[in-house]
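Ticket #4471: complex job returned nothing on first submit. Input attached below:
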Amino acid sequence: MNPWFLNFLEALLLIGIAPLVSTVLKNFKAVLQNRQGPGLLQSYRDLFKMFSKEPVLPHGVSWIFRLAPYTVFAATALACAIVPTILIQAPLSAAADVITLVGLFALARFFTALGAMDTGTAFGGMGASREMTFAALAEPAMLMGVFVLSLTAESTNLSTMMHIMLKGNLGLKPSLAFALTCLILIAIAETGRIPVDNPSTHLELTMVHEAMILEYSGRYLALIEWAKQMKLVLFATLLINLFAPWGIAEEISSNALIISLGTWIVKLLILLLILAILETSMAKMRIFRLPEYLGLAFLVAILGMLTHYILEPPL
Amino acid sequence: MNLLNLLLILPFLTGGVLSVIPSSRLAVKLNVAACSLTFIISLGLALEVLKRGTIQFDDHAFFLDPFNIFLVCLTTFVATTTSIFSGTYMLHEEEIGKVTSNQLRHYHAMYQLFIFGMLLALTTNNIGVLWIAMELATLATVLLVALYRTRSAISAAWKYFILCGMGIALALFGTILIFTTSSHVLGHSNEALTWTLLYPIADQLDSSVLTIAFVFLMVGYGTKVGLFPMHSWLPDAHAEGPTPISAVLSGLLLNVALYALVRCKTLVDGATQNGLAGYLMMGFGLLSVMIAALSLHRQKDIKRMFSFSSIEHMGLMTFSFGIGTFLANFAALLHMTVHSLVKSGIFFTVGHAAQSSKTQIMKKIRGLINLQPGVGVGLLTGTIAIAGFPPFGVFTSEFLLITAALETYPWTVGIILPSLVIAFAGLFRHLHPMVFGIPAREQKLLRVNMLPVYIHLGIALLLGIFIPKFLANWFQIAAELLSRGNV
Amino acid sequence: MDTKFIILAGPVLAILVPFASMVLSGRKEIRNLVTNLILVCSGIFSTVTGLTGLLSPSRTLILPLGLPWLPMHLRLDALGGFFMIVVGLMVVSVGIYSVGYLRNRERELNRTFLDLSMSLFIVGMQGILLADDAYTFMVFWEVMSVSSYFLVIFEHEKEANRKAGFLYLLMAHLGALFILSSFSILYAPGKSFEFEIMRSVQLEPIWASLAFVLAALGFGMKAGIVPLHVWLPEAHPVAPSNASALMSGVMIKVAIFGLLRVVWDLVGLDQAQAWWGGLLLMAGSSSALGGVLLALQQHNLKRLLAYHSVENIGIIFIGLGLAMVFAQFDNPQLAALGLVAALYHTINHALFKGLLFMGAGAILHATHQRNLEHLGGLIHRMPWTTILFLIGCLSISALPPFNGFVSEWLTFQAALMAPELTGSPLSALIPFSAAMLALAGALTATCFTKVFGIVFQGTPRTRSAADAHEVDGWMLTGMALPALLCILLGAFPVWVIPLIEKVPLLLLGTDMGSSTSNGGWLWLTPLSKERASYSPLIVLGTMLLAGVVAFMFYRRGRADRPAPIWSCGHPNLTSSMQYTAASFSQPLRQIFSTIYQPHEEVSRPDHRHPTDSGRVRYSVHVKDLAWVYIYHPIKHFIEWATRKMDWFQNHRIHGHLLLVFLTLIFLLGVLL
Amino acid sequence: MNSAEVLRQLSTVSASLFLLTSFALLAQRHMRAFLIWFSFQGILLGSLSAMVAYSTDSYELYVSAILAFFLKGILIPFLLWKIVIRLGVNREVETQINLFSTMLIGAILVLFSYYVSLPIQKTIMDMTRNIIAIGLACVLISMLIMITRRKAVTQVVGYLTLENSLFFTATAATHGMPLVVEIGVAFDVLIAVLIFGVFFFQIRKTFDSLDLRHLENKP
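Support reply: We reran it on our side without changes. The output follows.
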């Protein structure tokens, strides 16, 4: 089978599965909080409803307000395409390495913020301000975290990195532990989960992401929501395939692919469960404690890098 | 009756004539004519030197070598342009009744006498006559400084008189000391005071006597050059005298004094062989640069400020001559030229600025570039030139000077560079509000003659872009001569 | 082509401008057109010159000017050529822009003066790039400084502008003196100012280091490295916008050129020492972070852009530092990578910063407002300017697939090669630089979200913003050119980098190895295909594709229905209720309060009930620590010293006589 | 050659006399005595150069002797006295610091100048060295006079004393400078005195006092 085609399928898989994943997460939480969770297809129904609804557009907004959702969606979709999920040698992942991945997230965020500022309400501005502020701390932290890996793998290409993590007899590498911690912290922040942001709140004082998309409706809202769900899956996949890539398919053969798909789903479920437990057991932190949280992530990453230089001379 | 005698006699006679001509307009014209004539004569002499190299006149009484000939030309040239400027300026002063026509008569006579003094000092071959000429020039300028008869003018002139009188007396003592030892070698006669004869036998002179002598000469002529700490007459004299006089004081007299000092230094170095004279000059130079740079900031009177800048530049030249390598001497000579051109040009502009705003207090001079674009631009350009920005010649000389310093005594650069920057800051912090912004109400437009300024700045610009072959040649010979220490 | 023509065409044309301006002073419209078009031609010529310099072997030219024994040496080589292209491109676009910008403004500005300063400024920059001896270099350098100073104080009626001009000229002078002494050090061993000889001579390590430090100080001062940057945010904003586009876009790049010329070319990396690169790295990191942090808190648009110049220069310096370090640990190919990254960012920054400054000029032209808080909603009134400005914002925020991202990507790649230099303290310094770089990039994105959101989106905050108008075609064209180049440089780095590689070929004797193109024309692989690859075209294409698909797929949905904005039930929503620039940057102000030391003032009418606050005025000022800890102390010290000087003046005659007397006694006593 | 011996004796004597006059001038309180001592110094100078002229029968020196005698000994003091009378300042001469310490400083200066002139080699006859030392001392002392006196007139006298001591050195150490120089210097001095005269009246007119304290313009 043509790897390009496979890669395309992977992308579609991630994009398509994203709503389901978020529903699963909701269900896990519901079980933990012994509530009745939503049906597994709920997110799809929501998306469909929103798409078919007539979108309401505030007065005096510009084309940017309309453009933003599409850009966000496109950027995230591309991100999905470049992260190897099932097959390690995804050709598209050569088109954009991990730095570009971060860049794509930044692009999406940039346009979300612009869309928010377009209406000229206080909410939009507030949301954008907070989102960009925290992003400004989260993004470098994420880069640093990934760099620790790329230093070990001597590459910034995702497939190469995963390959090294899979094959390379790494022995004991403390820096990887740092990287993992950092990336988990960042993943929570970037996907806007508790304790950083509460996806299901509309309380003015605490909103970050929600405040930005307050004015959106109809298909625009749908695209943004969908992109957000994709982001969750993306980060999950990233964590999985970077730190526990066992079982991922290295050559194109049906059983290898099936095995790797299976392992991927299992790991994903475990990760979601952990996330659900975290979210249930924690409370959202005050908005101005966030900088410390992100600063911590940043610091951890830099520590990781230093340990790499000091404790792990190149082989 | 050769050209040189003509050069000397002309200003002398003109001075005599001018002292009896009542009509000031005629006097102005005559003044300009005489000056330009002397300039032409000096050009003729320059041509001769160009052809024949060092010339001596009236058996050893006078001599011209590449070192003093260009100073002669410079002197006569600046004297000419200044006389043109002073025409417009002094006539205006007379209109507004600051000077009577009688005083104006004195002014013109003294002006010529002053030029005579300087030319004599430059061309003579005799240390004693050099001293007399310096004294003459001093006395003439003392009267010129006192021209306005105001309290401040009188006291400034008095200060100038006493300080320079004492200084120059010390210089005479130095001269006498030189004579005491040289008369043993060359016999008790004029030969014993003749540069051209002294240089070759410098090594036979008693070094310890010459050392004492140089101390006196240094302090004496140094007072005239305006070196710290003997400088305090200079700002007053510049500020209180008529502006044309400030121009020639800064542009010419200081040069002549420095010329005398450098001649003595070469002689003494020849005798003592222990570069002591050089160290003295470097020390005084550095000190003056530093102090002047710092003093610039606190000035209120525009002419005082620029006179401090003159002290700074004199310090630079003295320092550079003190280093005494070929490059350093070249730099110093070039700096001498461009500085007198630019500084006198600046003083012309300052004169017009002060007249148009009826004060020399910088706080009251505002927005010249709006009031009188010519003056404003002139002042700005002049200051930029004197601050050492290319493509003006001052930059060239400072460039060479710093290089020379780095070659020989690198640590001095650590003093010079900050001083230059501080001096620059001092100049511009005052200049900015004067040139730019909105003019004050009482300032008024008046007819000015900016031609001399533009000529001067133009030449300075030219020297910055390229130096004509013959001039460069002279500088090289002169620098060579000074660095080797004998003719 | 004839060397003389190739080298001199651009400068000579530029020199013509003031004369043309004087001749045509009668016919305002024509003069405006002619002078600017001459500039455009000069720009085109220098671009061509630059290309020839890059592609053909270096050629020299000697003019009989300057010092008697030192005629003016000119030389066109790859290094000069590259920067010549930068200058040329910006001059072209600024020239076009100026036609519109200066039209109908004859009254308020003295045109001949402006033309004179502008042409001298451009000639100065071109001359520096061509100079082949120290004297020529210094002359053109100072010509550039002075003429740009005239541009800064051009609107001299304002007190602030005069102060800025003074500060600028002072710093420029200081910097020039540093450079001068660095040249003098290089002069000493070979006794010649010609670069040819300076290249060949060997210095003792101590002198080499001194020359390096002096050069770094001098050029860093011009480039605006923290903490030598203080003049930059003062001077750039107050110049006319077309001038500040050139100053911020090109002039500070010329400083980078100077550093490369002196340190890499003349001193030569063979004499370099390890800590030099470290110094550049530290300077770069501090500027990158400090610049963007201060930019975030500015409300004057042009001032904000100026601070971003500081940041970007920092990024360039990081690249240079990396290159230097790698060259030290003799790994020339990586050094080439670092250098290419730096140069790529140089040209990128020239483009987008020029674009942004021109955009700011357009806004100023349309609304007469500099302050962000007085703008808003311009997207509806200036649609084209908005699009071009947005491109600028995306590029400077280093977002893929624009050009800013490419250069930062390359810099990161270079930084990630740090393990190559084993067991050196520097290898621990590089991660910090990388971190600073990442942080700076993210903060830049934040800052430009603020700028774009506040200026162009929402609703107008003042009358003047409300009745703004779109600027004319000339200005739009002038801005469109760099915008287009931003996109192209972002999309086709694979074709640009081979050109830039000529410079490391000249300076380091090697390029990045043929690795750039081994991935084919589609892939940018600076090191190796496995190591790292980036294909801007695919990113661009895929995004467009995804966007289009999504759009086509869902356009069958229902049409949008306009409705009033939801305002928490507040009856009437006014434009003053929008988020302001100050409030946007408040969180960061709080996070980095130790660096900002913000000074807040809340003034409300007294004796009222706290809840019933009538008209509350809130203002906040942040400090620039460089002033607090470096410049004010120096200033005060010098003031103190000058006050001491009075002592020598306030004497009677007796005092002065006594001084002379004591001098005499002292000398006699000491010498004998 | 006892004439040379005599000459040496005489010049040493006159040198000490000259030093004495300088000290006397330094010590004077009263304007009249001050000027008298000054003229005495001039006469001493004239006679000294006459003696030198006689012993080394050089006619140039006679000229300078006469010049010195008439100018310095008679004319200038007389003019000054006239001025003093006209301006009515023939009162006590106030000094900056009290007389005793002035004298003390003077004494120290003499020692100092001896110390300074020690390194001069013997190549020149040692008498010259002593003369130079004394000349130096006189120069310094007359500078001291200029510094310590308040009145303009006394400052001028100080200046002239300085001039005198230069002449003395020239005459005693080297049998006088060449004629051109002598005459030139003499005329310069004369002009200087005239200018001083002009000044006194100017100062008088503008400040109605000759006290230099009024002469200061604080910048």
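The longest strand of chain B covers residues 55-57. Closing as resolved unless it happens again.
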